[in-house]
Amino acid sequence: MTSILRSPQALQLTLALIKPDAVAHPLILEAVHQQILSNKFLIVRMRELLWRKEDCQKFYREHEDSVVSASREIAAFFPDFSEQRWYEEEEPQLRCGPVHYSPEGGIHFAAPAGGLGPA
């Protein structure tokens, strides 16, 4: 699937967490995934993990509705992800397109010049 975004505004990062009861049912998980895509969200990273109850409690206890909290949460789930690098390098490419979606990887990526595949 290829699409072209032409947005004058910078894209924003959003962290989506899908709870275990949805993940346990493949049809529900696929419906959630399709809902994310149909609402024109770009999936730039995806990861499955299993947390202990204590980890979940700590995560939600520290959760605040702020940009600082969002950055901290993204770092917790994607330790190799550089938010600064994403905003400097990936965000402009994703915003201006063309953008491809990889069903195998479950993520969107900016189309490299002259070919297909993640940049």
TrEMBL record:
The keyword ATP-binding applies. PROSITE patterns: NDPK_LIKE (PS51374). GO terms for molecular function: ATP binding; metal ion binding; nucleoside diphosphate kinase activity. Keywords: ATP-binding, Kinase, Magnesium, Metal-binding, Nucleotide metabolism, Nucleotide-binding, Transferase. The keyword NADP does not apply. Its cofactor is Mg(2+). It comes from the Eukaryota. GO terms for cellular component: mitochondrion. InterPro entries: NDK-like_dom, NDK-like_dom_sf, NDPk6. Belongs to the NDK family. This is NME/NM23 nucleoside diphosphate kinase 6. It comes from Bos mutus grunniens. The gene is NME6.
